[in-house]
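User: Could you check the structure of this?
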Amino acid sequence: MPDTPKPPLPAGMFDEWPRIVVDTSRGTPHHRIARLATHAADHWALGPDGPLKTPQPLASTISGAVHEALLHLAELGLIDIDTDRLNAAKAIPIDRGGLGPKAAVPEHLSAGANAENCPACKGTNPPYPFLCPGPTKDTTHG
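Assistant: Sure, the predicted structure tokens are below.
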């Protein structure tokens, strides 16, 4: 059972399809499954049926890699296909562009805190003495 419940199916064919937040950080279940799928896809791509041995269009290469990755995970019993949900959907979007859940905007620590420990200052390389500016109206850098 997933930690996050599945969102309801859209009522109409072109209604917005709600998304759930998926933690893709290192060591998470998603990361582990993605690595297994990537290895399966790579193994196919480098094998006798893959594009390095059998030239093929890009679309065929992508389809083959995705097929092998999903098949490998399904055969291992690591993923289940929700056929009830799949059959009940009036339509399923194929483009993820702009549809995923919005990531939380990191917030600054208190003014004067060590910027290296601040989620909003992370990766910004603030000037010495590396102090967090603290919360502002716009808590993002840039």
